[in-house]
Automatic annotation (TrEMBL):
It comes from the Bacteria. This is Beta-lactamase-related domain-containing protein. InterPro entries: Beta-lactam-related, Beta-lactam/transpept-like. Coiled coil: none annotated. It comes from Mangrovihabitans endophyticus.
Length: 157
């Protein structure tokens, strides 16, 4: 996490320090073991993968409710849609779902490609990580679609 003097510290080992950003002044993700899932939850990559699959396999939601969660709600572009807190899109002819978030010093994304069964998780623990670019590279590895203009994994272009 970048702190006020410009140095970078490990948020977990420097709980006394916080973000200098005005929109999150003093926030340190290491102190927030329970927080909103989009910007402050703690997880491991394997747990994010299990969570993503559990949303669609009947573990967490019955199939009709999973369809409600992942159903397109509002168009963002020709093949990109908003859903309930998720980005969803059609990429190379298949659905892609994703949820990303971040806080000072951390970032995360999980993606699910239900037509193929693939899922991905990206976790970072420092400021300045190009999360959107990493999502695009993951998307390319799974679907073959080249990274787009920075809209991320679920955009579809």
């Amino acid at each position: 996490m970048t702190v006020a003097d410009g140095s970078v510290v490990d948020a977990l080992h420097h709980l006394d320090q916080g973000s200098p950003e005005s929109y999150m002044l003093g926030k340190n993700p290491g102190r927030a073991f329970i927080d909103a899932p989009g910007d402050g939850g703690f997880s491991t990559a394997p747990d994010l993968i299990r969570f993503a699959h559990a949303l669609t396999d009947g573990t967490l939601l019955d199939r009709p409710w999973a369809d409600v969660l992942f159903g397109a709600k509002i168009p963002h572009g020709p093949t990109s849609f908003g859903a309930y807190g998720l980005a969803i899109g059609i990429v190379e002819g298949q659905w892609a779902y994703q949820r990303a978030g971040g806080n000072p010093g951390v970032g995360a994304n999980w993606s699910l490609y239900p037509d193929t069964g693939w899922a991905g998780a990206i976790l970072d623990n420092r400021d300045g990580v190009p999360l959107v670019d990493l999502i695009g590279r993951e998307n390319q590895a799974v679907t073959g679609a080249p990274p787009d203009d920075g809209a991320g994994g679920g955009s579809g272009g």
